[in-house]
Amino acid sequence: MTSGLAAAIEGEQAAVYAYGLAGPHLDETQRGLALGALAAHRLRVLALRELTPDGMEPGAPAGYDVPPVEGPEQARLLLAQVESRLCATYADLAAETSGADRTEAVLSARECAVRSVAWGAPPQAFPGR
Amino acid sequence: MPCDITRVPGTRGMLTLSGRTSVRAGSPQTQGSGSGVSMHPLSRRAVLSAGVALAVAACSPSADAPPAPEQSTPSESPPDPDLGLRGDVAAQEWALVALYDSALATPGTLDPSLLALMRDQHREHAAALGSAEPPAGAPTSATGSSSTAPAPGGDVRARLIESEQQAAGARTDACGAARDPDLVRLLALIASSEASHAESLRGTA
User: Which residues from A are below 8 Å from B3, CB to CB?
Assistant: First the structure.
């Protein structure tokens, strides 16, 4: 398994965790957005595992040590940051894949960048870098 | 695997993956000094840092390297198989710069600072592709053809959104054609930036 693939799986797992952390602090509308994003990240994990040789998947981490999220603003900041960095991780994955896998990586990167902005981050020239 | 998923101090990170079952969020005992885990007076910054750290856990292989959008390297080494691709994309970036210049010259409801920010990001894209200046004969805000001048009013927003979406699609296609992995990475980031521009413009409705 390539390092880019492992990084993408781990990044997606971290994103799923972050959404779980942030979700309860969001208002109803934002929670709908968060649930959609969470579902998208879970699907991406599954898709990435399809690319992974049997027995080579990185295990899910037992947990993350992060500061508590206090309120909706911090929740949005956390999600914006996580999405932005995951965008860069997918750009790295695109660089080491080809064909349809590369296209999927680029589309994933784009989705992450869009969500980062949706959570309030300003647009960046090179998201996550 | 090169990723150090338990990296703690020394990086910007203050996030530790526990080897045990779930760690209470924010538990300070796993950290070395100076980790900034305390949330109280600096809560906003701390959360930002947490986001960075969580992303560090995502361990992007290049996370330790600077952004490194591609630097143009004057060719003294082997011919660049992506030369034409770089030039084409750079020209398209300059066309977007001209489009934003036109939009900025058109009184409207869009936030000029947001437009200028995104225009300048297209300049950064072009520069990263090795084109620091608009190509000769390229449209500028002063000489832009009527086809690049957005119509006034809400159509400006729609035109910009459409242009950004098309650009993101074109960069995605270009990714598939590029040979140099660094160029692929760069184009993926540019595609992402442009998709996020469209989202920003939608959000200003």
Answer: 3, 6-7, 10
Give bridge partners of residue A65 from the DSSP assignment. B16
Average pLDDT, 10 consecutive residues per value, chain B (205 residues): 32 32 32 33 44 46 46 66 95 97 90 97 98 79 46 78 98 97 98 98 78
The minimum CA-CA distance between B114 and chain A, rounded to whole Å, is 9
Given B47, B195, B200, which is nearest A74 (Cβ)?
A: B47
Report pLDDT for A41: 98
All domains of chain A in start order, with CATH: 3-118 (1.20.1260.10)
pTM of the model: 0.76
B-chain CB neighbours of A10 within 8 Å are 3, 5, 57-59
Of B5, B44, B118, the CB nearest to A74: B44
Domains, chain B, with CATH or none:
1-38 (no CATH), 83-202 (1.20.1260.10)
**Residues 6+ positions from B78 with CB-CB distance below 8 Å:** none
Report chain A residues whose CB lies below 8 A from the CB of B16: 64-65
Instruction: With beta carbons less than 8 A apart as the criterion, state whether A100 and B73 touch.
Output: no
